Amino acid sequence: MEINSEDVLKIENNEVVSCDKSAVNVVFPEDIARVRRQAFLECDKLESITINTACKSIGELAFSLCTALKSVELPEGLEQIGAQAFKNCTSLSSVKIPDGCKVKSRAFERCKALESVVIPNIENDLIAGYREIFDTSYIKHITIAEGVEKLPKRAFEGFYSLETLELGKDVAYIDDFAFCGLWREIKIELRTPHFAFENGMLYNKKTKKLIRCFSKNIVVPSFIKSIGEDAFFDVESVRSTAEQTFLPYVESVSFEQGCTVNALPKLWKELCLYFHRKMDKNEMTIKKIVETVNAQVVKQKLKDEKKSEVSKMGAKSVLEPVVAESGVVCEKWEDKDNQYIGVKCNRGGIELKLPNKSAVKRLEPLRELLGMIKSKDVLEVVAFAQKNKLALQGEKAERYAVVGKGGRFSDLGRNVASIVATKEFVAECDRKPGAFFVDGELPILNEIVIDAPKKAASALCNRFWFYAHNLKCVKCMDGELSQPDLFFKEGVLRACLNKDIESVVLDEGVERICADFFEDDSSNAIIRAIYRGPFENEQKGVFENCFNLKSVKLPQSLTEIDDRTFFGCHNLSNLEFAGTVAQWRAVEKGEDWHKWCNFAVVHCADGDAEL
């Protein structure tokens, strides 16, 4: 029976302070914002609780020892669940953590009936962090929600009762050791298009990599190209003589005819160190599996070597005449398995990877594409290449990168001269802003072409102005973007990109001038060196050594000026502040913020303030 909340709940300032021990079914009023610490402690008759959508926080031990609690509805807007919030709720059988909610340690400790959980997209480490939240040994069903893209190493270690795992549609990466420490047969249900689970085998559909097997006798399909480190057994346990050797359900391995696996997993090579000693039954099985896979690898390598010699010569002989007759100036290089062609277009450029073994099939589309170079825009050339399945190089490009759906900029090589970002990639950036993240200098990059209007491209390209010092413009659908003089991030002025600037006017809304652009990325040694002075702990200011700077107008919203902001600006003779003298004096100022400047007062709205 649902009890009126006014009869059982004590509420102060829109927070639930406590609950009567007689409560059975409770529905929160709409204006509740928080459940305080121990509010429902030992309410052992409480069977269900419905929390309102405005509630943002559940305190520590809030529902601890509610032993009859069977269900709880957590609202989507919930931001935090405190430590041990549902400890010893021994009747609670399922829970769905809202997207983005931060869950503290042991929140669901000793919830022995909790068999089903939904893992959302959260900031802290997926599932690995949840081992500190749940008693994982009781959980039988896990659903990975939408928005979760990666399953990390040892993600399911300790889930000893797990029977079914459902992967959401956004899961695109599964670590080789994601299932390390999980030693039972499970059923995997997939909504993600990136993976498949067949005959007890989980594999990556794009790379054809076998990730994990859950059956005793495995026949590796012919389409599988590589074997994951943890596909058949726990390599890390096998390598350690101090640990027990674990083996899942794999007892034997064989290969379908035509299988092209040509390399042992990297860590398997170390296992040979342990095969000379006396082995138990499990280790003997492991040795047999390693030998079987190695025999397949040796066999395939011999085939690959013969194919490579024949196909490589054939590829050269058929591709070179097509390139020559086109009259297009191309850059050409090769490796063991592929021929590469780099072509500069009217805007940007493209690189094609042409596999030696199938070069003949690419001749006609290649001939037509080269014929388009002089007359068509690069975006039309890219669209043609994609339609005709000519492999465009992206992150691994030598000179001309084309980044399409599923691509990233974070691994671009230092010798890339131009980038083309397709419409599909720009659309993905709305959902995954990190896709346009670039990390590391691009000294040769001088041109970016984006299939988007200037307004959309401007936000995407901000970081490139830092890393690509030769980049002067970004070409968009409706014109070009020039390099900005200043870089802002979230109301903070982070850098001056134009060291020849003579006058600066900062708009209202700018609160800080702070050169520590990478204050949340201490691992980036390259950029740290760029933005720091000659000594390791010396901060370099935003306008430091801008010798041509003469006039600066600062907004009333400004609250902080960092160290060395105007250090060495010898010609800076006019500094204005839109606020009052009192407001200027309240602005926090760093060390040497105006050293070697040529002004003695700051012109404020109600008079001059002396330095």
TrEMBL record:
Gene3D superfamilies: Ribonuclease Inhibitor. Pfam families: LRR_5 (PF13306). Transmembrane segments: none annotated. This is Leucine-rich repeat domain-containing protein. It comes from Treponema saccharophilum DSM 2985.
